[in-house]
Amino acid sequence: MVLKISNSIASNDLAQALEFLDDFKVHAARTFDLETSDITQRSEELALRREAAEHGVMISARSRDESGFERHAAQVKAAYDACKRANAMENSQYAIEASANEPLIVGLNLLRLLVQNRIAEFHTELETTEREVLSDARVQAVLELEQFLMEGAYNKIAQKQGALPHPSYEYFMSMLMDTVRDEIASCAESAYAKLSGEEARKFLGFNTMKEYIEYAQGRKWAVDSAGSVVFNEDVKPATSKDIPSMRLINQTLLYAKELERIV
Hints:
Elements: H1 2-10, H2 14-31, H3 39-62, H4 66-89, H5 102-115, H6 119-127, H7 131-134, H8 137-151, H9 154-160, H10 170-191, E1 194-195, H11 197-204, H12 209-218, E2 222-223, E3 229-230, H13 245-262
Antiparallel strand pairs: 1-3, 2-3
Helix pairs in contact: 1-2, 1-3, 2-3, 3-4, 5-6, 5-8, 5-10, 8-9, 9-10, 11-12
């Protein structure tokens, strides 16, 4: 059954994969009893439940089901913990091998938390994840995105859009790019007087001019037939008269007096 789930995901038949996953969960619940099974059966059941939860995460990410993703992410975290507890209690002969998919699942969950701006949970997840998992390229890619986001290096995030470590990252990466694109657009409005259509398209990380034009129109930019955009056309350049010099001087003198009094 797990093989059928994997094949359905690989062929992008997500509805079929979800159906197989539901069937597997029902079958597993009827077949295994963790309270009465022997060590070998318990290990097998825990590993299968873990694998099913991992597939649930991947199916939810591919089908863009955020609530389903969160539900399966909680299940897979519980499954990882259960396997680790079992390994600590049982003879090493029956140890459950670490899942090859764990770095992918952890990376996906970290990317979700980053996109949802749940930074405290993001760092809590990092602290509770084993070093071997964190060192995996699929997790490191997300940590790099978080670093770029904190630095405001939005262009570097845009460059990573075409170099995802796994197809399952696409949905959350597209959500991150929407946020980043809005930030880049706001910066461009303040930093540039005019941009050509090709420059603006590259800045915003769009693959086609059609996508860029639709986005520009959504922001109510003045776009000409070539796609060029002019920012703040009606705004006059700032002059020395626009700087509140007397207020700044008074504030500076006040700060100096307060510092002198404190010393």
